[in-house]
Amino acid sequence: MYRIEVDKADLAASRFGVAPLLETLNALGLAAHRVPAGPLGPWVARARPRYLPIADDPAIRTLTFLRRRAGYMADFISPPPARPNLTIAEQLITMRATPLDQARGEVVRNLVGLPEPDAVVREVLDAPDMVELLATGLETAWDAMLKPDWPVLRSIVERDIVHRAGRLAAYGWAEALDGLSRQVRWRDGVIEVDILGGGDATRRLGGTGLMFVPVVFSELGLAVEQHWPYTLMYRARGVAALWESPTPRRDDALARLLGRTRADLLRLLAEPATTTWLSARLRMSLGGIGDHLTVLRASGLVTRERSGRSVLYRRTAVGDMLVGTS
């Protein structure tokens, strides 16, 4: 078990981030059947045809070989985000700047407990441009598998960030960690984290705060390496939005009253949401969503408010009543 000791300064210094490279590596592991699909089975079934054409690329084979369900994975391949709103291009720049000696040392740790690499994988790992080869492989995987779904993916993690950051700011550690995972607990100034295959150690944040990273394609993870910010990765809420769409109702009085899209929007606003999330969820343009929200707001059914850099829409009491009676 890992124990992370925190103090009051850490609460204010903690932040949230999005990790496109980590999502790419984890998606590869799922598509290659290196890790169980679990609840993400519907997405894996849809993404597998996109994976198969790149599966024999030597760098892709190496990345999927290094992806493991438990135990250490090389940090330079999927560095924790140093700040929020990082793009895939920015993370690839960070990855490509990794010194070769550091990368080789991390790969050696990554290989512990894995079978002997085959000749193709070994050739990539021994290459003098190993870092560049793996970065190019991740870029290939991103373009083939995640780029088409990124608007929805990003909307899922951004909605989770809005939810959990609000709890952290308003109520503190205990409320922010509640429901994050059964393997995470808050005990009198200490965050306890049980990681499958993890170690037993105590770390102190010392005023630097904790980086929270909601992810879609993996479960709980913890990074406590010296070169990176201490990072807690956890499964974001609402990942089913990646493959599901709102199901039309056979006898939908609300849709007859407001129109199908506005009825769907009102139902989706059971929790506060951004236009980005709503757009991704309904597979509609931001402009179209904005137009419908303007009408709903003018009708007194939704309201909006700013939360940090985001604008959140939520149902009013009248909107709640209308949905409740439909």
Alpha plus pi helix count: 15
Shape: globular
Main β-sheet, in a few words?
4 strands, mixed
- Taken as a percent bin, the fraction of beta residues is 5-15%
What oligomeric state do the depicted chains represent?
A: single chain
The succession of helices and strands, N to C, reads EHEHHHHHHHHHEEEEEEHHHHEEH
Unreliable sequence segments: none
Cα distance spanning the termini: 48 Å
Q: Strand order across the biggest sheet?
A: 3-4-1-5
- Give the mean pLDDT: 89
Rg, please? 21 Å
Q: Fraction of residues in helices? A: 40-55%
**Helix/strand/pairing class, anyone?**
alpha/beta
Count of DSSP E strands? Answer: 10
